[in-house]
Amino acid sequence: MTQKYSNLDEYTEILAKNAKNASKDLRTLNADKRSAVLSLVAKMLREQKEAILAANKIDLEAAAGKLDDSKMDRLTLNDARIEAMAKGAEEIAAFADPLNRVLESRELKNGIKISRVAVPIGAVFFIFESRPNVTIDGACLCFKAGNAVILRGGKESLNSAKCLAGIFHEALAANGVSENAVQLVTETSHDLVGKLLQRNDCLDLVIPRGGERLIRAVVEQSKIPVIKHFNGICHVYVDKSADIEKATNILINAKTQRTGVCNAMECVIFDRHLAANDVKKMLDALVERGVELYGNKDAQSHDSRIADIGEDSNYHHEYLALKASVKFVDNVAEACDHIEQNSSRHTEAVVAEDATVQDYFVANVDSSSVMVNASTRFADGGEYGLGAEVGISTDKLHARGPMGVESLCSYKWILRGNGQVRG
């Protein structure tokens, strides 16, 4: 557990040094031990469900009237979400060891045998907002990949996070592993975050998971490399070759199944060659479920329920609510151009039966996940078989898309010789 401290500078020093020292021990902690910790975490989450719900109730009561519906939804824990955390921990425990994998090997002309081997990143600073379940997801993934982690959640979820981190600490202690492998920041001051972001002497990576404002603030302050995605402006393009029933179901799911998440659809793009009745059917399905529609003058000419979106730049907008932008285009090429201009490079989907259209979309859309005849809501670590995720990266260096255990590894080169020297 974190030691007592008298001021923020001292607390920063303790957190950073603890993480660095723990990361050294975790490099060589065997895979069976790491899996045993995670299996115990899963067991204890189920056993301590009532305590978790009680802690979460305190957070929910304190946040009532202060957070909007989407943020309250993120803050809420229930039986199903606790079970999902437990299952995620079990799945991650069962994964093959991501460390010490030989990624490539060969023998050089001079006889030296060279290999590239997966290793932990080291010490990770993981910042998230109001989702307390991320406490467990982040800790499990980082730990499985041999990384120490400092977790800093939003103040609104502090009681829930303390309870969940306490469970992880119990599992670590029961297996003889230092509790500093997973540290929870209990100080809510923003100044502390700024101080930790300067500690590139101890910390190796920052992962912020939250809204665009949080992520931009982290990027601007950090001396440590940051894995990021600023927002999730996800598109669904419905081509003239689309199966309308498939398209309707995909639009409903992508927009309304859960609105306050980064993989929800924010813009639907229609091929203007679709039959007017088919477009109406799809828009009816959204409007009947409470979705407000916004578009330019062209879009408004197709349906009177589409309100004026204003400037074209407003198509680059993440609603995180029952709202969606609507755009009409001539073909898949124009759809891809619109996405290129307005996407956040998170997730895009095409609904089309024409294989040429599918292939064009996949080749030309530059986002971390591209769906063909499937909802954008599948862009998720659990759905990809990663067990869980620490976030979805829209970067192109190191990791991209849902980040599971392998994304939390780096590598090193190992050369084995027999006295060779360079001439």
Can you walk me through this structure?
- Helices cover 40% and strands 19% of the residues.
- By secondary structure, the protein is an alpha/beta fold.
- The protein has a seven-stranded parallel sheet, with helices on both faces. It has a four-stranded parallel sheet with strand order 5-4-3-6, sandwiched between helices. Strands 1-2-16 form a three-stranded antiparallel sheet, with no helix packed on it.
- A hairpin with a 5-residue loop joins strand 1 and strand 2.
- Helix 10 runs parallel beside helix 11 (276-287).
- The model has no long low-confidence stretch (mean pLDDT 93).
Give a short summary of the structure.
With 423 residues, the chain is an alpha/beta fold. The chain contains 14 helices and 16 strands.
Salient structural properties:
single chain, 423 residues, alpha/beta, 7-stranded parallel sheet, 4-stranded parallel sheet, 14 helices, 16 strands, globular
Mean pLDDT, all residues: 93
How much strand?
15-25%
* Distance N to C terminus: 52 Å
Number of strands: 16
The rough form would be described as: globular
Number of helices: 14
Poorly predicted regions are: none
Q: Which structural class is indicated by helix and strand composition?
A: alpha/beta
Strand-and-helix sequence, N→C?
HHHHHEEEHEHEHEHEHEHEHEEHEHEEEE
Strand order of the largest sheet: 10-9-11-8-7-12-13
Describe the main β-sheet briefly: 7 strands, parallel
